[in-house]
Design brief:
The chain has 52 residues and is mainly α. Helices cover 81% and strands 0% of the residues.
Length: 52
């Protein structure tokens, strides 16, 4: 059985951790975008003249 060098394990684990961090960041950014769009639409609704 071939063993994997410590430096490759370190690199693999660091890349795996970074990938997970980026996934969580993407989810946070998407949620912030959704909330910002919701706020924008709420404010836009108040600025529209009411139909007579």
């Amino acid at each position: 059985m071939q063993t994997i060098a410590k430096e490759y394990l370190l690199l693999f684990n660091t890349l795996t951790d970074a990938e997970e961090t980026l996934r969580r960041l993407e989810a946070r950014l998407m949620e912030a975008q959704r909330q910002a769009e919701e706020l924008f639409l709420e404010n836009t609704d108040h600025d529209l003249p009411s139909p007579d």
